[in-house]
Amino acid sequence: MHGMTLNLPPKPKRKIGLRILSITLFLLIILWAFSGINYLGVMSTAANSIRGMVNGILNPDIDYITNTTVDGLPYALLETVAIAISGTFVSGILAIPFALLASQNIVGEKRAKIGKFIITMIRTFPELILALVFISVVGPGAPAGILALGIHSIGMLAKLYSESIESMDIGVKEALESCGGNRMEVLFRAVIPQVMPEFMSYTLFRFEINMRAASTLGLVGAGGIGAPLIFAIRTRFWERAFTIVIALVITVTIIDLISGRIRKKLV
Amino acid sequence: MMTAPHQDPIVVTRPPRIKFWVTFAIVTFLIFGSASFTGFSVIEVMINFYKGSRLLIRMFFPPAWDYTPRIIGPLLETVQMAIVGSLIGAVVAFPVALLASSTFISTKWVNMPVRFILNIFRTIPALVLASLFVAVFGPGNYAGVVALFIFSFGLISKLTYESVEAIDQGEVEAMVALGANKLEILRYGIIPQILPQYMSYTLYAFEVNVRAAAVLGYVGAGGVGQIYERALAWRNFDRVGMIVIISFVAVLLIDLLSSAIRRRLV
Q: How many CA atoms within 13 Å lie on the side-chain side of A202?
């Protein structure tokens, strides 16, 4: 056998032209993107701001932390968490019918496409704009934020739900149908028990996202910690601003840890 | 009456459901607690429902079609901000992701602090970052880009270090056995395995950034958010409707394009 040379298989031919074209296109897009960013230098007050920020990080606003009234940190944080929980709950329920309407093994391919389009549309509507719409419905405050999160989250949850419905084992459903189960029975005995753990896991994941979203809704007056935070930043009250940011980071981290642990157990 | 069957009845004992009911009670408490704490009432929503629909009608029936030319500019600016933010974020994220992954650098006191910092970056909402940077750089899209950069950096690093940890260690071990140094392992063992995922995460961050950038203008950080704010401040709801429609089309196009590329990558 010795003396024989083994030839390597030939390298697959690369389409050089296509490669050059796509790289050029990519570079052009990046050049275009950079050309739109105008750096106007830092503000003349930037040094002061940064000094203030560092000072703010080092000196937490103790009065604000210990203030247990409506104007204090604990209340605002609790309200933010409550907005996130309620908003997630609302969307968790509302997303189910949308998900069913977008799953092709439930309503057929054509109708599922329409359902998917509606879901995408909901997802694109920015939360802040929704919050403004709902402020005109229920007035400024936490309920507007809950509704905004509740509606906006349908976009993501219904998409994930419908994906898990579409990938479920269809055998159970068919078995029930062949035994004469009606639509409702099929839904409650075959579909829901199978997809429930995944649904809950997605809902918890969305809760983590909503926690972050809830902390900015206050910007437009929809409740939560966003309002005092933005106010503190605008008035350069750095002690308070960073107290809130740090409190937010801690809260979100704890919630992420708990929710992540539960999600691992669920799926 | 039928006679009783002769065999013993089969006794089915359900597994204890205490855990289920405890969880159920906690969740119910959290939901109702939150609802009452925030004063959320379904009835009030129902009563005021017509106000909301009236507003939606003012936004979309009809939207301000003639406002379109003035939306395109800020919208393109939003896309530019998202591209630059996610690109720089991705470039910086790569080395940091390596530092954070325990399979590449197996020193806990390097991984842990890096992950801790990444976690902080990911926790602060982009909008808050943007308003902080507006205070430093002044209003304009530069502050927005820096905020998006920090945000995508946190996101891409986290996803990438998780992929680095999840790769097939066989190839890496084979290279170690052959005496490859860290750089060679990186170049021939790790990068070929994670590159498609890394690029896919970058595109994903870009998609998220386009959505995030759309509201950054609200705090003065450039992009389509600033015309949102103006239209809302003047209560020109038909213009708001038009911005929503055009942003929707743009986001849809970008998502389609980006997911087509992603499907080819992974």
A: 24
Per-residue tokens: B229: 């704010």
Q: Residue A165's Cα: distance from chain center in Å?
A: 20
For A148-173, b/e burial (b = at least 16 CB within 10 A) is bbbbbbbbbbbbbbbbbbbebeeeeb
Question: Are the beta carbons of B251 and A124 closer than 8 angstroms?
Answer: yes
Nearest to A219 among B124, B127, B240 (CB): B127
| Structural domain boundaries in chain A | 56-266
CB-based contact (8 Å) between B84 and chain A? Answer: yes
Q: Is the pLDDT at B2 greater than 60, yes or no?
A: no
Q: Read off the pLDDT of residues B84-129 as tens digits, 9 standing for 90 and up.
A: 999 999 999 999 999 888 888 878 888 888 888 888 888 888 888 8
Checking ipTM against 0.95, whether it exceeds it is no
Chain B residue numbers with beta carbons less than 8 Å from the beta carbon of A146 are 38, 40
How far, CA to CA in Å, does A267 sit from each of A86, A155, A158, B180? 23, 22, 18, 39
| Token representation of residue B79 | 């896309």
- Confidence check: pLDDT of A127 > 80: yes
Closest CA relative to residue B33, chosen from A203, A86, A4:
A86
Q: Which of B34, B132, B232 sits opposite A233 (nearest CB)?
A: B132
For A56-266, which CATH superfamily applies? MetI-like (1.10.3720.10)
Q: Report residue A70: phi and psi, to 5°.
A: -60, -25
In this predicted model, what pLDDT tens digit does every residue of A163-181 receive, in sequence order?
888 888 888 888 888 888 8
Architecture of domain B69-265 in this structure: Orthogonal Bundle (1.10)
Across the A/B interface, how many CB contacts are shorter than 8 Å?
165
Q: What is the DSSP letter of B185?
A: I
Where are the domains positioned within chain B?
Answer: 69-265
Under 8 Å between Cβ of B247 and B224: yes
Q: Answer yes or no: are the C-beta atoms of A241 and A229 closer than 8 Å.
A: yes
Contact (Cβ atoms closer than 8 angstroms) between residue B217 and residue B228:
yes
- Rounded to the nearest 10°, the torsion over CA B111, B117, B120, B125 is -110
Output the average pLDDT for chain A.
85
- pLDDT value at position B147? 92
Contacts of A164 (CB under 8 A, 6+ apart): A195, A198, A199, A202
The model's pTM: 0.82
